[in-house]
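User: Last request for today: this protein with zinc ion, please.
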Amino acid sequence: MFSVTALPASFGDCLWIEYGPIEAPYALLIDAGPSAPSGLKARLQDLAARQGKLELVVVTHVDADHIGGMLTLLENDFYGVPVRDFWFNAFRHLPGETFGEKQGERLTGLLLEKKVTWNAELNNAALMVGDGDYPQFSLPGGAVITLLSPDAGQLAALKRKWIDVCGEADLYVDIPATTTFYGEEGREHFGGLPNVKALCELDFKEDATEANGSSIAFVLEYEGKRVLLGADAFPSRLIASLGELYGDMQHRFDLVKVPHHGSEKNVSKDFVEALKCPRYLFSSNGARYKHPSRAAVARVIAFGNKPKLLFNYRTEFNEMWASEMLMQLHGYAPFYGDKDQGIEIRLIP
Ligand SMILES: [Zn+2]
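Assistant: Here's the final one, the structure of the complex with zinc ion:
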């Protein structure tokens, strides 16, 4: 079996992945939402009960909507589940000039305190790509990971902003949750049903935030099935990596976890056109940033090939895509998870 479940992680990501024999699959965990989502503790307790382990835990980057729940999991020793390797690019791993005293932050502190094996396959160096080098990792049971993001420049940029970014992610001090909207979806001038063509005519301006750029994104392959796990990465980085790795043809995937929850700044026409994929997964309940943006979904619809759109929640920010008229017009199909379970995509039964 091979399945990817986007758990209900509010406005963040929490992906639970299983592959291998159905009676005792291997398990991976990518991010843990702003707080550990419903259902995750029970999954870990089940895994502990059958003496399983997490083959890999990844914190893709240092933003609160990916890292917050991980602090709780570490504090609770993953509810008794051993972790074979843990990927996280901490300050000490980042290339570039050093400045001042290295600030301790909570995740790094917990990893050290709990003696979690960390970036082990790299001898505790940074996970990154560059200069034609795309590290590959073989996981137990035959799955393979190929790294696509971040590159050294993106990590160096994060290093310069590390203290700010960790502050925003609530890793040092308590910062009250804000209700600031970043205006991604501020455009209401289409009224009623989204106008896919008009949305696709909007200019694309790529994300430039250091933390998102530092995202660990990768291809996960198992028994011929290929998944692109885009974290909050920049589409230009993903396209460049895929092109260098596999050439300029369309890249076949069975599932793409859309970068940055379907922000309009992380889903470009070029990105969608570079892919040949029947399923696109959007992970967010729309809180805080109103993800996914209509423009991003419109690009997937217009430049993908009659895709299935998979949402882990049904919300006011994505339910407009359930319109029969739009489906008929554009030939796509939406699927919604629910607020307790999220959505599971079975790639191999
Ligand atoms: Zn995010």
